[in-house]
Each structure stands twice: as structure tokens, then as C-alpha cells.
Amino acid sequence: MLNPFSLPLHPAINHFPLAMLSVAWACVLIRYATGNVTWDGRVRLFEVVGVASLPFTVVAAFIDTRGIDFLLDPRVDAPLIWHMTSGLLAAIVFGLHYFWRRTKEPAELTGRNAIQDIALITFGMIALLGAGLLGAEVVYGG
Amino acid sequence: MKRTALLLPVFVLWATAAPAVAATRQVSSGNYYFQDNETGSRQQVVVNKGDQITVTIAEAPVAAFLGAHTVDIDEMNVHSGDLTIGQTFTTPALTKVGTFSLYCDNHRNMGHQTRLVVKAPPVESTPAPTQDSEPAPAGDASSNGSNLLQPVPLTGQAIPLPALTVPTPAPATAEPAGVGEASPGQLRAAGVDPDSLEGLIGRNVGGNQPWTRALWFLLIGGVAAVGAAVIAIVRGRSLAAVAAVREAKRSGTAQSSSGPRRSSGRSRKSSPRKASASGRKSGGRRR
Q1: Which regions of chain B does DSSP assign to beta strands (E)?
Q2: Cβ within 8 Å of A, B 161-200
Q3: B54: pLDDT confidence band, cut at 50, 70 and 90?
Q4: Is the dihedral of CA A47, A53, A59, A62 positive or negative?
Q5: B226 CB near a chain A CB, below 8 Å?
Q6: Residues B112, B115, B41, CA angle at the centre, nearest 5°?
Q7: Which fold has domain B2-122+130-201?
Q8: Measuring CA to CA, how many Å separate A100 from each of A94, A120, B94, B236?
Q9: Across the interface, do A108 and B218 touch by the CB < 8 Å criterion?
Q10: Residue B144: is its pLDDT beyond 50?
């Protein structure tokens, strides 16, 4: 019988940062593409929820690695390690981006700051995408 | 002599009737079904009493954390334990007649079960014998695993037959019960769930691929993300350039006295460095 306590925690929690940070990235792009600074507030809101949920996601992931048997299978070693690396990298980059952006006024996000803003969050987004794809390989891979 | 002649067919039939050979029904198990390979049915598996079932695990569970596939029939105390893809599980001879549930313990709540019907050996209705009737050949007396003797012509005279004990042959075990390994051919024979993605699009996009395919998907997604970022930056710069031109036009048409007020107004919101830069810029334009 399926035991609910044997189910992993990480896949249930990671939707929050994935959704919030992806939307935050989209909001950053829209903000620069339209020049409308009201999107900065939306970026901040989405990103704060995403970044706040990151520690829970990471802790749940480490709990899962000790409690879910199939994660100990050598077959998933390589994608699992790269999934963890990529996920942690995404968490760090988004955290840095959030705290860096807090120090900037909307009017300051022009020129070099704008490029830095977009580059940082896009790098985080790519790391998040990689973590997601590798996580899918861990779970669904043959 | 007459009695001997009459009993002869009986002995011949008894001697030639092949012992019941238990059939072994091949069943595939996947996500999340049991499929009778002979009939293709996923609704039920129908066997005769004494038959065995060999279940081949044709697919690994969709998500490994959901647990492995198993083969269970509670009423017959059949419990295979966890099975991996490529393994088979052969039940002992099914000796109970009735309808049972053949299910996977880990995925029963996901519909991984089917109806198992174990039929009793068919009892043929004996036609009224006549004197002229010939004994039926016994060739397929056990074609379905039963051990039926064919009708014997009788003359109507009561003949005391000797006590003839026909031993009920134990069902011959064609396959040893328990866990085994499936041949690759058996795995290929496993059907595709018509409701699966593979069943819908006609090709397997799931397993049997190295995990590094994720890197190719990441490359595609990364290029798209960087492209979107570049577009946003370029568009933002063009918007800023247009705004600057408009600002310049407005500054050019405005009176020179309005310049310092606008400059000081912007400096309240922006940083001092940017305010001074803005002031320099507008001052330059004014010149």
C-alpha cells in the first residue's frame, strides 16, 4: 500500500520557487522591454516569495536524499548530483539578485545596472531550468 | 467376453487420456495495468483451474518513488514482493475457482489491478448413448487442461464395473512458481497503454535515453532565455533613446527658464549622481 509518509517532500515544495522565480524573471524582462517601472514592484513581490521558499525546498531535498530509496540507486547518481549543483546555484543566484536589487531604486536600473540585473536573473533562470530538467531525469529517466 | 469388449474402450480411454497439463497464461504488467497477452484484454484474465499465470514486468513504474510493481492475489496467498522491469513472476497452480482480484500492491489505488477469473473444468453434457454410437476419440480430451473421459456406449445391461480409481492427476507444473527473468522478446510483446503518451503519439519519448539529453534541452531553453533577455534589453534601450529624443525636443522648445525646474524635480527621485548627470545633459542640450 502506498504510504504517504514515504513520499518525497521536495517535489511537492519546489513548485513555489519554480513558479515565483520564473514569473519574476518574466516581470524583469517586461519591465525593461516596456520601460514601465511599475513592474519592479511585481518583480520584488514574486521574487521575495520565491527566495523565501528556497530554503524549505533545499532542506526538503536533502531530507529526500536520505529517505527515498531510489535516490540511493547508482543509476541516478550523475543526474542527481548535477541536479543538486544546478539547484543550489540557482538558489544562490536568485538570492544574490534579490538582495542586490533591493539596494537599487527603479531609476538606477538603467544602463550597466540594467544589464547586470537582466544577466543575473537570466543566469539564475537558466540554472533553475537545468535543475528542473535534471530533476526530471532523476525521476522519469530510464 | 462381451464384458471385456465393453470395458476395453473404457480402459483405452483412461489409458490414452492425456493427463491434465496446466496451461501457463502470459500476462504483462506495466503502468498501470495487467494485460492478458493472449486476448489483449486489460479488463480480465480468464484461466482454467490448475493453470498458472506468468506475469512479466514490461514497464518500470512511472515514478520510482511510487514503489515497484508486485503481483498479488490475496485469496490464493500469492504475493510476489517487489519486481523490477524484465522480471517475471509465475504463480503456483490456481486451484480455487471464482473471480478474484489480481493486483499490484503498491499501485492498486492507481488502478493497477484486473479481474482474475478462474473457471472450473468445463463439464460436457453427456448425450444419451445409443448402441450404434461410436466411442468418441479421446484426442482432445484435455485440450483445455481438463481430464474428461468421453461417453462410453452402453448396451443398457447393468454391468458391474470394477472399482476403478482414476487418480486426479496433479496439475503438471509447466513453469516453476516464483520470480524469473523475462526474455527480451517477452518484453517487446508487452502492449502499449492506449492512454499513455506513447500510445497517443505512437513513439516512446520516455526512457532508454541517457540523462545527458537534459543538457540538450537546457541548451535550447538557455538560448531562448538569453534571447528573450537580449530582446528586452535592446527594446528597453530603444525606448530610452526615443524618450531621450522626446526629452530633447521638449527641452529645445521649452523656455530656458523651465530647464532648471525640471532638472531639480528629477533629482528628488534619482540619486545625486544621476541628477547631476541629467542636469549636465540637459544643460548641454540647452547650450
Answers
A1: 24-30, 33-36, 44-48, 52-57, 72-73, 78-79, 87-90, 98-103, 113-119, 178-181
A2: none
A3: very high
A4: negative
A5: yes
A6: 80
A7: Immunoglobulin-like (2.60.40)
A8: 10, 10, 70, 21
A9: no
A10: no
Question: With an 8 Å Cβ cutoff, is A95 touching chain B?
Answer: no
Q: How many CB atoms lie within 10 A of CB B275?
A: 18
Mean pLDDT, chain B, whole residue set: 70
Report percent pLDDT > 70 for chain B: 52
C-alpha cell belonging to residue A53? 521558499
The count of other CB atoms within 10 Å of the CB of residue B61 is: 22
In angstroms, rounded to a whole number, what is the distance separating the alpha carbons of residues B192 and B199? 6
Task: Tell me how far apart the alpha carbons of residues A2 and A6 are, in angstroms, rounded to a whole number.
Answer: 8
Nearest residue on chain A to B224, alpha-carbon basis? A126
Say what the pLDDT of residue A43 is: 92
Q: Which of B211, B231, B271 sits opposite A33 (nearest CB)?
A: B231
Per-residue model confidence as pLDDT tens digits over B169-194 = 555 556 778 888 877 666 654 555 55
Best of B72, B84, B113, B233 to disrupt the A interface by mutation (most A CBs within 10 Å)?
B233
- pLDDT higher than 50, residue B267: no
- Please give the single-letter amino acid code of residue A123: F
* Cβ atoms of A6 and A71 closer than 8 Å: no
Separation between Cα atoms, residue A21 and residue A26, nearest integer Å:
9
pLDDT in tens, A73-118: 666 778 889 999 999 999 999 999 999 998 988 888 888 888 999 9
- Its pTM stands at 0.49
**Residue B253 grid coordinates:** 522648445
CB contact under 8 A, B63 and A139: yes
Where do the structural domains in chain B lie, given as residue ranges?
2-122+130-201, 213-286
The single-letter DSSP state of residue B118 is: E
- Residues B65/A70, Cβ–Cβ less than 8 Å: yes
Q: Which of A135, A39, A18, A25 is nearest to A81 (CA)?
A: A135
- pLDDT tens digits for range B7-31: 555 554 444 444 456 788 999 888 7
Q: Residue B162 — φ and ψ, nearest 5°?
A: -70, 155
Q: Which backbone phi and psi does B181 adopt, to 5 degrees? A: -115, 135
Summary count for chain B: helices (H), strands (E): 6, 10
Task: Name residue B245's amino acid.
Answer: V
Q: What pLDDT score was predicted for residue B125?
A: 57
Closest approach of chain B CAs to the CA of A108, in angstroms?
7
